[in-house]
């Protein structure tokens, strides 16, 4: 692996040591390593590994288009200086890939939908590097590229972040005199306005779909399109709103990065890794007033350093399918060997010159390095707790499931778990990925199968006067026998034959490393099985045998306190963080009693849990919680469940 420590500058970057030189060296290393896997014409870059779900032709196109992003950012930020000959190298690939007569031609936009994704990367880089690439191409090659991109015009795009791919491609075509439809762009812009949510957030479509696409796609493309279309009244009038949303969103985003640089391990396409840094560079390029450039760089560089210090890229300079090192189960059905190179979006900062403030100001610490915080993020329905002592960021989830209220799908481990953090991964492989265990509240049926919660109703997201956060949701427990196989899996919940169970109600009170869960199953004629509550999934080098429902991997502790039964499940090769995942849980010995409040304390932190929060009741209606730091809160469960 490339040695980057030689570039460390702790004066300029006291938190990470990283500078622009680190980013440039890493980008160059990835780009030069990729050349070993290129075809003779450079049009296809086929990284090692079995083909992805869309086949080898798509894999090879992804390998070209996604590394092309890094090359374009690299040259644009150097104002055309190109000692590695990147533009010449990729120009040869463009000429061959868009030549319909070449045996190495690319899959076209009207032949496979994935080409629509890659076309946006081609268009974006051609825009950013126009003086040094497009303007120097042979007119015949320019015509080929226009013809290759032209099926975007009037094309059918899924109603998610893909709409931006059409907008970007057609905007580029318009700028070079190619075919485009103004109506496509206008309709697309109007449609993406519907993605906007509270406090600058975007959902990826109509569902409660919140993940890293909120930053690396839905914040990125509006800013870039408004730059591409600068001077157009439509773009100039929209840009201030896009920047306002971006700035507000970034204030939440910097609170979702751990002190070790780990992004939140939540949502699909996690194998894109560095791409999680894109949003921070987008803020820097757009010139948002806040967060400050030093904080934006700290967040972005922390993410990159996190992955480079944990095996990505590998010793051959390749970004494999995985999170740190290789871990194939993290892939979705659309993932192939070239897919991880969307990580190249994380190099967007290199499009900014060396004298830009984001590179020259002193790094500022992340929020989690500056102090503890409790942050209510309303759009995705998250209660965010960061603790300075261990640098961990935790999210308690009462708003995201990649679905709609009232649906009855299986729970996606990437979206519908009750908690996510920067130090843990949900169980993503094995039996407990399909049957919720970690970060769950379930009823067990007569066969011991756990229920699902997707389709829940969000009832409350708030902060108490003490700073303690409170959230509430309810759902109808359901069991699903999925239909078909999972070859179409994009990380979402799956439909199937559904059997409905009782309603369940959950209130979370969150303070520091602790969450107190109040759980109730209202009286019903439907059969009630035992109640089981799963805690944080802790990465570990080996399995454990314990019945205390408290575990440690040597640096982090996970604990669940409450109910009659308790134990720890050791799940092998179930997440990308370690060979084993340890999940503490507790449960009732018999069926959950109707209309009874059960309380469970859940802990994740670097120190031994110590004294847990203590719950007592002031009469039948008010719950009094005394936290380990001495703070006392009064909770009114009836008010919490009545909604805002």
Concise overview:
This protein is an alpha+beta fold.
What would you say this structure looks like, in words?
This protein is α+β, with helices and mostly antiparallel strands and 644 residues long. 27% of the residues lie in helices and 20% in strands. It has 16 helices and 19 strands. It has helices at 20-34, 56-77, 86-97, 114-128, 139-149, 163-175, 182-193, 213-216, 220-228, 233-253, 278-286, 293-308, 357-360, 367-370, 431-434, 637-641, and strands spanning 373-377, 382-387, 392-397, 419-421, 440-443, 457-463, 469-482, 496-511, 514-520, 530-534, 538-540, 550-552, 557-561, 565-575, 578-591, 598-605, 614-618, 622-626, 632-635. Strands 6-7-8-9-16-13-12 form a seven-stranded antiparallel β-sheet. The longest helix is centred in the N-terminal third of the chain and has 22 residues, at 56-77. The chain is globular. The mean pLDDT is 96.
């Amino acid at each position: 692996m490339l040695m980057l420590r030689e570039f460390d500058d702790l004066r300029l970057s006291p938190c990470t040591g990283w500078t622009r030189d680190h980013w440039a060296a890493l980008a160059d290393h990835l780009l030069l390593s990729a050349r070993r896997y290129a075809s003779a014409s450079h049009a296809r870059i086929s990284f090692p590994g079995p083909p992805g779900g869309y086949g080898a032709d798509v894999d090879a196109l992804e390998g070209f288009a996604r590394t092309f992003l890094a090359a374009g950012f690299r040259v644009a930020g150097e104002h055309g200086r190109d000692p590695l000959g990147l533009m010449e190298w990729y120009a040869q690939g463009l000429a061959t890939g868009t030549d319909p007569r070449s045996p190495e031609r690319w899959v076209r936009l009207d032949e496979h939908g994935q080409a629509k994704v890659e076309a946006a990367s081609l268009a974006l880089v051609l825009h950013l590097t126009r003086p040094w690439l497009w303007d120097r191409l042979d007119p015949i090659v320019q015509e080929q590229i226009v013809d290759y991109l032209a099926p975007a015009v009037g094309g059918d795009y899924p109603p998610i972040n893909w709409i931006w791919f059409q907008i970007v491609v057609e905007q580029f075509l318009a700028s070079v005199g190619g075919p485009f439809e103004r109506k496509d762009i206008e309709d697309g812009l109007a449609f993406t306005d519907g993605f906007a949510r509270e406090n600058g957030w975007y959902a990826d479509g109509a569902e409660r779909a919140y993940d890293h696409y909120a930053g690396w796609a839905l914040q990125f493309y509006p800013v870039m399109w408004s730059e591409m279309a600068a001077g157009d009244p439509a773009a100039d009038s929209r840009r201030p709103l896009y920047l306002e949303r971006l700035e507000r969103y970034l204030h939440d985003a910097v609170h979702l990065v751990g002190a070790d640089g780990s992004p939140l391990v939540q949502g699909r396409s996690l194998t894109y890794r560095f791409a999680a840094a894109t949003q921070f560079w987008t803020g820097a390029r757009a010139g948002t007033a806040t967060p400050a450039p030093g904080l934006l760089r700290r967040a972005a560089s922390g993410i990159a350093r996190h992955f480079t210090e944990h095996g990505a890229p590998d010793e051959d300079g390749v970004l494999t399918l995985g999170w740190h090192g290789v871990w194939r189960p993290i892939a979705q059905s659309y993932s192939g060997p070239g897919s991880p190179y969307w990580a190249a979006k994380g190099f967007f900062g290199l499009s900014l010159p060396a004298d830009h403030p984001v590179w020259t100001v002193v790094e500022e610490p992340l929020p989690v390095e500056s102090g503890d915080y409790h942050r209510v993020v309303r759009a995705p329905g998250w209660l965010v707790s960061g603790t300075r002592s261990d640098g961990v960021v935790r999210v308690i989830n009462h708003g995201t499931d990649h679905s709609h209220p009232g649906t009855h799908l299986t729970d996606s481990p990437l979206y519908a778990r009750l908690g996510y953090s920067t130090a843990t991964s949900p169980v993503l492989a094995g039996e407990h990925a399909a049957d919720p265990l970690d970060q769950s509240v379930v009823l067990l049926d007569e066969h011991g199968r756990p229920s699902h919660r997707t389709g829940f109703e969000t009832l409350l997201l708030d902060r108490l006067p003490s700073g303690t956060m409170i959230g509430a949701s309810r759902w109808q427990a359901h069991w699903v026998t999925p239909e078909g196989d999972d070859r179409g899996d994009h990380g979402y919940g799956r439909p199937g034959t559904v059997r409905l169970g009782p309603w369940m109600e959950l209130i979370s009170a969150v303070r520091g490393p602790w969450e107190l869960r109040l759980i109730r199953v209202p009286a019903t004629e439907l059969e009630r099985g035992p109640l089981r509550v799963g805690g944080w999934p802790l990465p570990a080098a080996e399995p454990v045998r314990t019945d205390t429902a408290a575990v440690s991997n040597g640096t982090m502790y996970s604990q669940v306190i409450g109910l009659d039964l308790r134990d720890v499940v050791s799940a092998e090769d179930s997440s990308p963080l370690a060979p084993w995942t340890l999940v503490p849980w507790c449960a009732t010995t018999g069926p959950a009693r109707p209309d009874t409040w059960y309380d469970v304390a859940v802990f994740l932190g670097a120190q031994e849990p110590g004294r847990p929060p203590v719950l007592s009741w002031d009469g039948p209606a008010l719950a009094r919680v005394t936290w380990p730091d001495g703070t006392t809160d009064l909770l009114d469960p009836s008010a919490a469940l009545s909604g805002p």
